[in-house]
Amino acid sequence: MHMSEKETRILATYDALHAMPEVGFAEHRTSAWLADQIKSAGFSVTTGVGGTGIVATLKGKEPGPTVALRADMDALAHIVNGEEVCVHSCGHDAHSSMVLTAAQELAKTGIRRGTLKILFQPAEEKLFGASRMIEDGAIDDVDIILGIHLRPIQEAKTGQATPALYHGSSYIMEATITGQTAHGARPHLGINAIDAAAAAVNAVNAIHINPVIPSTCKVTKLIAGGATLNQIPDKAVMALDCRAQQNDAMKILLEKAEKAIKAGASTVGATAETVVTGGVPGAEYDPEIIDLAREAIRAILGEQGLLDPVVTPGGEDFHNFVKAKPSLKAGYIGLGCNLTPGLHDPTMKFDRSAMIKGADILAYMVGKLLQ
Questions:
Q1: Of 266, 283, 286, 287, which has the most beta carbons under 10 Å away?
Q2: Bridge partners of 146?
Q3: Average confidence (pLDDT) over 305-327
């Protein structure tokens, strides 16, 4: 079947990006290549935003809102055949290809009003690339922000898309438990940090919040004791993976986790300090933007291609944009593409023809907002 110039171009874009995978904040070749391409399309370009990020701007003739299309750029490190290699196993090369292609098409026709901003974001996998761009002012003037992500075949197939992909809130809490060292022959003179950690783990496992809201809180690291095996250990370090589908629920979960760890440790006389070391908020979308996404999916894929909103426990640092600027109207498309065996698998494959539909959905939405 004969491919259009646009289809040929998006596949060439993908091939170029797929061949230069780089981990977060090291996307130097990727960033330089995308900056050249978007500049050639007629955008004014600022590089080095939030590290390796790009902000490209196209202004309309009349006043209007500022709409941003955001794509992540980073790849993942994998151990393959005993060697560490960098692989685009989460589709960020496809996301950048779709956003760049949509931007090129919109620049060809021009926008009547407002401003179109393109954000090529670093380090999504590190979960703070968006925050770095925010700190550098990338969304100071943005009113509406849109994103897109490939979906596993279990969620959506080629020819399908969801108008709202509801990621959950995901945070890591780390705790240091302090007891009192002593000789193994005199345990009554010490406070065993392992006993304290065990009590803390049981307390964490007893946490409950509203069961209507999907959530989990589990201990994923526990290190205690040392080289001297006849000594009562005075230190233990633990980490928790906390997830909840709503941001209010996450706040409660983290509060309960902190109390559980401190109270559990105190049952044997130990103390505990906790700190939230990283994470992302859950999705919060604007209903009008979801409706526009539905319209765009119907227009590009037909009624049969429109899925219901999809809920996923996975995290996405796109949602830091709304957390930092609650007035933002956000939308996020989940694109079906027969992706197997799954995201973050180094052998991940997908139907590349789906990318043109994703680009068209984004371009349709921007066209409705800025024409």
A1: 283
A2: 69, 331
A3: 97
Tens of pLDDT, residue by residue over 47-87, are 999 999 999 999 999 999 999 999 999 999 999 999 999 99
| Residue that wins the pLDDT comparison between 191 and 226 | 191
Task: Provide CB contacts within 8 A for 35, sequence distance 6+.
Answer: 45, 47, 54, 56, 120
Distance CA 355, CA 357 (A): 5
Joined tokens for residue 170: 């995901």
What pLDDT is stored for residue 229 in this prediction? 96
Q: How many CB atoms lie within 10 A of CB 220?
A: 10
Which DSSP string corresponds to 135-185?
HTTTTTT-SEEEEEEEEETTT--TT-EESBEEEPEEEEEEEEEE-B-EETT
Contact (Cβ atoms closer than 8 angstroms) between residue 50 and residue 138: yes
In sequence order, the β-bridge partners of residue 115 are 59, 66
pLDDT at 43 over 90: yes
Query: Residue 41 carries which DSSP code?
Result: T
With vertex at residue 61, the alpha carbon angle to CA 56 and CA 63, rounded to the nearest 5 degrees, is: 90
Retrieve residue 100's tokens: 């760049």
CA distance linking residue 311 with residue 313, whole number of Å = 7
Question: Structural domains in the chain?
Answer: 5-168+282-370 (3.40.630.10), 169-280 (3.30.70.360)
DSSP, collapsed to helix, strand or coil, labels residue 369 as helix
Mean pLDDT of all residues in 136-149? 98
Q: Where are the beta strands (DSSP E) in 165-315?
A: 165-167, 169-178, 182-183, 215-224, 231-232, 235-244, 271-280, 310-312
Pairing of strands 76-80, 83-87: antiparallel
pLDDT band per the 50, 70, 90 thresholds, residue 224? very high
Contact 319, 284 (CB under 8 A): yes
d(C-alpha 182, C-alpha 23), whole Å: 45
Can you tell me the mean pLDDT for 277-282? 96
Question: Which residues on neighbouring strands pair with residue 72, listed in sequence order?
Answer: 121
Measured in residues, the chain has a length of 371
- Six-digit token pair at 275? 């700190």
343 burial (CB, 10 Å; 0-12 / 13-18 / 19+) is middle
**Which pLDDT does position 2 carry in this prediction?**
79
Phi, psi angle pair for 307, to nearest 5°: -95, 165
